[in-house]
Design brief:
The protein folds into 2 domains: about 10-120 and about 315-325, 3-Layer(aba) Sandwich (NADH Oxidase); about 135-305, NADH Oxidase (3-Layer(aba) Sandwich), CATH 3.40.109. The protein contains 9 helices and 11 strands. The chain has helices at about 10-20, 55-80, 110-115, 135-145, 160-190, 195-200, 245-265, 280-290, 315-320; strands spanning about 30-35, 40-45, 80-85, 95-105, 150-155, 200-205, 225-230, 235-240, 270, 295-305, 320-325. A 5-stranded mixed sheet has the order 3-4-2-1-11. A 4-stranded antiparallel sheet has the order 5-8-10-9, with helices on both faces. It has a two-stranded parallel sheet with strand order 6-7. The structure holds flavin mononucleotide (FMN).
C-alpha cells in the first residue's frame, strides 16, 4: 500500500534522528535509541549508558530522553508535519519513552521556530558576562517550561538563592572528593563523555567562582584547561515538576530543551548545577523551603556567554538509529 504524502522519507528520518541526538544528556551519555519509519519516530531509553556514579541515574536518563523527544517534535514541525505524541505508551515497556506519530501536514509553528536553534545550543561552562538576564526573557523561558508541564522557579529572592547555593557548594565538596577517586572514569567511562574543550575553565575557588559552576574534572591537570573567575551572581533557577516519576521526568526533559532553545534564540547560554539533585537528601532540601513544593529536576545557571564552546561529540548515528518498515 502506498504511503500517504506526509510519510517520512529516509533522508527526513535521518535528519530527525540527527537533531534528536544533539539534545543535552547527562554527562553526554546519550542514553537513547531512535526507531524511525515512514510513520514517525520512537524514542527508547538505553539505561546501559546511564552514568553509574550517581543515585539519580534513572531520572537523568528520562530527562535526557525527554530533551531528545522535544527535539524530535521540533524537527518534525520544521518538516511541516503534524504529530501525535504518546509518552510511555506501553505499560509493559518502560524503556519506550515516547511514540511520535505523523498524522498529517502542518507542523506546530512555535516548535518549528525553535528548531532553528538546535545546532547552536551548547552547555556553556565558561564565565558569563555579569549583566542580568532580562526579566522579559526569563518570563519567556518560564512560559516555555510551563508549556511542557514544568515550572522554572527563579531563585530571585536572596535568602533562597543563598540557601540553594549553599546546597550546591555542599554537594560540590562531596563530589570533588568522589571525583578525585574516580575522576578519569567520569570523563572517559561513557565515551565520548565530556571532552576537555567542553569542561570550561577550572573555577577559582576563591569566592569569584559564582559557586554554581560544576567542575566535572576537579584536580585533573588537563592540558589546555586554564582557570577563570566566574560572574559573581549568576542567574539561577530550578526546573521543577508537580509530580515525580518517569512521566514527569520526560516532561521536565522536554521543558528543558524547549527553554534552552528559546534561551539560545535570545543569546542566553546555560550550564547546570545538578550536584545537589544527585543526592536524595540534598534534593529534598532544594525543594523544602520553597513557597510552593515542586520536585526539582534541574538546576540552571544562565547568562550571556563570553565564549562559545565547540559542539560536544555525539555517538555515530548507526549506534542510535534503527529503521523500521512502518
Ligand atoms: C539530566 C541532565 C543533567 C545534567 N547535569 C549537568 C550538570 O550537573 N552540570 C553540567 O555542567 N552539565 C550537566 N548537563 C549537561 C550535559 O553534560 C551536556 O548536555 C552534555 O555534556 C552534552 O553537551 P551539550 O549540552 O553542549 O550538547 C546535564 C544534562 C542533562 C540532560
Amino acid at each position: 500500500m502506498p504511503y500517504p504524502d506526509h510519510a517520512l522519507d529516509v533522508p527526513e528520518q535521518t535528519a530527525v534522528a540527527a537533531a534528536a541526538a544533539s539534545a543535552p544528556s547527562v554527562l553526554n551519555s546519550q542514553p537513547w535509541l531512535f526507531s524511525t519509519g515512514p510513520q514517525g519516530v520512537e524514542v527508547h531509553a538505553d539505561p546501559r549508558r546511564a552514568p553509574t556514579a550517581t543515585a539519580s541515574a534513572r531520572r537523568d536518563v528520562y530527562l535526557s530522553c525527554g530533551a531528545a523527544l522535544f527535539t524530535v517534535r521540533a524537527a518534525l514541525a520544521r518538516l511541516d508535519r503534524a504529530v501525535r505524541v504518546s509518552v510511555l505508551p506501553e505499560a509493559g515497556d518502560p524503556l519506550l519513552v515516547a511514540r511520535v506519530t505523523v498524522t498529517g501536514d502542518g507542523g506546530d509553528p512555535e516548535a518549528a521556530a525553535l528548531y532553528r536553534w538546535v545546532g547552536d545550543r551548547r552547555t556553556n561552562r565558561h564565565p558569563f558576562r555579569p549583566e542580568p538576564v532580562p526579566a522579559g526573557v526569563l518570563a519567556l523561558l518560564g512560559g516555555a517550561a510551563e508549556h511542557e508541564g514544568a515550572t522554572l522557579r527563579r531563585l530571585d529572592a536572596e535568602p533562597e538563592y543563598q540557601r540553594v547555593l549553599t546546597l550546591i557548594r555542599r554537594a560540590s565538596l562531596a563530589e570533588d572528593d568522589a571525583v578525585r577517586e574516580d575522576g578519569a572514569d567520569r570523563l572517559t567511562g561513557v565515551p565520548p563523555a565530556v571532552p576537555v574543550e567542553n569542561l570550561g575553565p577550572v573555577p577559582r575557588r576563591d569566592g569569584t567562582d559564582g559557586g554554581a559552576v560544576r567542575d566535572l574534572a576537579p584536580d585533573l591537570a588537563l592540558p589546555g584547561r586554564g582557570t577563570a573567575a566566574f560572574e559573581p551572581h549568576p542567574e539561577l533557577a530550578v526546573l521543577e515538576t508537580a509530580e515525580d516519576g518517569p512521566a514527569s521526568w520526560v516532561a521536565a526533559g522536554q521543558a528543558l530543551q524547549r527553554l534552552l532553545l528559546e534561551a539560545t534564540g535570545h543569546g542566553i547560554a546555560a550550564s547546570f548545577a545538578n550536584q545537589p539533585l544527585e543526592d536524595a537528601e540534598l534534593r529534598e532540601e532544594v525543594s523544602s523551603s520553597a513557597a510552593h513544593f515542586g520536585h526539582p529536576q534541574m538546576v540552571l545557571r544562565m547568562g550571556y556567554p563570553l565564549t562559545r564552546p565547540p559542539a560536544a561529540p555525539r555517538r555515530p548515528q548507526h549506534e542510535v538509529l534503527r529503521r523500521v518498515g512502518r
